[in-house]
Amino acid sequence: MSRSGFAINELLGRDLSFRGNRGIFKKGKENKDMLTKSNRIFVILGYLISLVTGLQTGGYQYIIISMRDEFALTNAGMALLGSVQSIVGLCMSFIFSRFIDRVDKRKLIFIGGGIYIVGSICNGFSNGPTMTIAALVIAGLGGNVMSSSLYPALISTDPQHSSKYTNMLQLFYGTGAMTAPMIMSVLIGDMQLNWRWHYRIITAAMLAMIVLSALVRPETSMRLIPKSAPGEKAQRQVNTEKIYKTAAFWLFFFSIGFYMSMETGLMNYARLYFETMGDSRSAGLAISVAWGLMLPTRFIASRLRRNKDKVVCICFTLAGVAMLLMAMFRIPVVSLIWCAIFGVFAGPCWPTILSMGMDTFPKQSGRAHSLIGIGSGLGAMFGNVAMGKVVDTTGVGNAFYLVASFAVAGVVTGFFAIKASRKKLQADKEAELQIESQQKA
């Protein structure tokens, strides 16, 4: 072949090579865009799942009085009934914490969602207290599996913005919790429907979210903990010590527990508080107002990168003041203002505490979420039972002094949790630098 022929073939070869590379580049870019789109859809569906669980919580806080009346329970008995899901959640959080960082969280969301739907169906067609308790156990089991997987799964799409996802999930959760009491007050009060319709609605909504989520395959579903290279093993051990052996964990644990005691105390007894004053119209509105005003402050908190410690302490303090005023001045219209103030300042507390706790253990965020979640569940259970007993003995108005005391305890534990977190992160950083210097040497 002539030299000109070789030149032509070489030129064509280069052109073909260029075309092939360009095609590969375009294909790679399309795949990346598809993954980004899948991740976005996955995040949106995660938010909607949180919305549905919020609907369940807010609706439950409204219908629990109807359940109490149908089953002829005392306030303390009602509190124990309300604690069933929390107890189940505690057990599952402890079990989950041992392996959640090593499994596919997307699959766990489906498993938990399926169990949650079964529990909701059972409650939607409950024929008595025994079936209701069993249904709450099943729903509590599934709900904990689902929520424990949802937070770290969404955070893994962009670990640098953990605060964004924890707060946005809570934003949607709060939207559902705000909307449900108003919906149920219409269904039960105006349309004279049974409280079981609440769970039938939840069943349909959650089923739709789980089915849609199954159609999306995000990149995050395959992000499991990689196997460490021999030289990285020692460095990973710095960040994978036993979480429950650290002071920071226990302080976050109790801080979020006291917050949940405070929130549960208001939300589960607001309806009874207003009905006792003869203002049944404000009973459902109070819960919706509190949840509704949590939304803007949680959205603002989702953008926070600094001063999380100050936000937690200030919010605990002012939410506690609102509950103190609610106990002191029991005037129907005015008390709605106390609920509104509580919502504004309580909003950022739970997700910000959780976000700081997960940031303290960056290599074990799923485990940190589950273990700190035990504190949240214990707090909800303790607050519910304690409020029930105080309501039965001294009345619902005086019980809100107890809610205010939970806020004081939350400020104290939150303050020391933040200091312990900083100390641990600094110690981890120094240990990593020491290991790196030893490896270089």
Protein model, in words:
The chain is 83% helix and 0% strand. The chain has helices spanning 3-71, 75-82, 84-96, 105-124, 129-155, 162-190, 197-214, 233-239, 247-276, 281-301, 308-328, 332-346, 349-360, 365-394, 396-440. The relative contact order is 0.13. With 441 residues, the chain is an all-alpha fold.
List its traits.
441 residues, mainly alpha, 15 helices, disordered N terminus
Question: Can I get a quick summary?
Answer:
The protein is mainly alpha-helical. It is built from 15 helices and no strands.
Number of strands: 0
What percentage of residues falls in helices of 4 or more residues? over 70%
Distance linking N and C termini: 59 Å
Mind telling me the C-alpha Rg? 25 Å
Structural class: mainly alpha
Ranges where pLDDT stays below 50 over 5 or more residues in a row are 1-35, 221-240
Order of helices and strands: HHHHHHHHHHHHHHH
Helices, by number, come to: 15
Q: What is the 3D form?
A: globular
Overall mean confidence score, pLDDT: 79
> How big a fraction of the residues is strand?
under 5%
Main β-sheet, in a few words? none
